[in-house]
Amino acid sequence: MRILHTADWHIGQRLHERQRTDEHEQFLDWLLETIQAHQVELLLVSGDIFDTALPSSESTNLYYRFLYRLFSETDAYTVITAGNHDSPRHLEAPREFLEMGRIYVVGTADEPTKCVVTLPRENPQVAVAAVPFLSESDLRHLSYETEADRNERYRERFKAFYADCVSLMPVELPKILMGHLFVQGGQVGDSERNVQIGGATATHISDFPEDVSYVALGHLHRPQTIKGTDYPVRYSGSPIPLRFNETSYHKAVYLLELSDDGALVCDKEIKVPIFKELCIVAGNETSVLSDAMTGDWDGKYIQVKLKLTTPRVGISDEIRQAFANRGGEVLSVELELSETEQGPKISVEDMKRPEEIFEQFYRTKFDGEPPDEILRQTFNELVEIVEESK
Ligand SMILES: [Mn+2]
Questions:
Q1: Which residue, of 1, 58, 180, 381, has the fewest CB within 10 Å?
Q2: Confidence at residue 6, expressed as pLDDT on a 0 to 100 scale
Q3: Each residue of 342-355: b (16+ CB within 10 Å) or e?
Q4: Which pLDDT value is given to residue 349?
């Protein structure tokens, strides 16, 4: 059976307020072509389908249009699980309806029985444990517990859940596990929601059961295989770079072929094309401007990291214009003043008010989330104190 593993689409994601619908649309078109070209029989999507719990109608439309084409233009089965960015209940709301189109969606995982599917339905060749993101808040909080105890308890629960899934699978079928979680040893970027990484929700490679053919994971955005098992435990990564610093490596999906006895007869990385190039340009004023004027920036998104000795009003606009003249779009200018090199880097776009800069900084730091009211007030009080002391 030929299987394709992908995850972390993050449909609806914005990069510095830019909508990325075109990139997602191109990715989904490419994915459909890839599925057709390789005669894929099973598509696995391991969580974070959408970037937000309540995706826009445009994002929702893109997703369902893709599912419809998958159903009508291929014979593939599809298994989709919810990630930490998805709303488990929203994602699985059309569950029964989608099953008519050979599409299996699992959002919430109260019972292992709900996660196990054998496919194709009439003549099973593979068993899949479609395990979505298991939230830490599902664990009842015990006040006397230390964080290490809590971590242990999460690991135990996770281990038992997978073991139960495997025990529910027909012995003779090859087994695939899905998951949206952090395995210790994985390489983390900064676009994964960090509260879910490390800390209490980290699991260990040895927690995965034996007698499995492949573990298809989502959550980390860099494609990678975690060492320590005799079968691949792998993150496919996100198909489009979600941050500028995700451009130093290729984005990928994985094509697998399982023999009837569960052996991996083909295990191949397929690089996802770059639909929109993201570039980082760093340097002082002269070098950045000269790069802007000599490079080919047509259709590219650019992040500028500018080293300055003294701040200068209007420099951001000048740089934006220089890139725009050659077709590039600067999404952020990060100023780095040499004497404050130790401090946090704040992207000072256009001489904004402190509250706006704070909000912008907070959003880049915490996945687009705005700061809450209490934090806002605290920040404003701080600004007042500083103003008064001047
Ligand atoms: Mn993700």
A1: 381
A2: 98
A3: eeeebbbbeeeeee
A4: 52
Q: β-pairing, 301-308 with 278-284?
A: parallel
229 alpha carbon to ligand 1 midpoint, in Å? 24
Burial (0-12, 13-18, 19+ Cβ within 10 Å), 193? middle
Beta bridge partners of residue 15, listed in sequence order:
18
Task: Determine the pLDDT at residue 224.
Answer: 95
Ligand 1 centroid, distance to 351 Cα (angstroms): 33
Q: What is the CA 58 to chain-centroid distance, rounded? A: 19
The pLDDT score that the predictor gives to residue 163 is: 95
5 alpha carbon – ligand 1 mean position (Å): 14
Residue 343 is predicted with a pLDDT of 53
Which two three-digit tokens encode residue 331? 């999404």
Q: What is the C-alpha separation between 359 and 232, in angstroms, rounded?
A: 41
CA of 183 to the centre of ligand 1 (A): 14
Cα-Cα-Cα-Cα dihedral of 107, 47, 5, 204, to 10°? -100
Q: Please give the distance, rounded to the nearest whole angstrom, from the Cα atom of residue 224 to the centre of ligand 1.
A: 14
Q: What is the mean pLDDT of each run of 10 residues along the chain (390 residues)?
A: 98 94 98 98 98 96 98 97 96 96 94 94 95 76 73 85 96 96 81 51 87 96 94 96 91 95 93 96 94 94 90 87 95 79 54 78 80 86 80
pTM recorded for the entire structure: 0.83
Ligand 1 centre to CA of 262 (Å) is 28
Q: Quick one: pLDDT at residue 350?
A: 52
Q: Rounded to whole angstroms, what are the CA distances from 33 to 36, 60, 189, 241?
A: 5, 21, 29, 20
Q: CB burial class (10 A; 0-12, 13-18, 19+) of residue 121?
A: exposed
Rg, C-alpha atoms of the chain = 23
Distance 120 CA to ligand 1 centre (A): 28
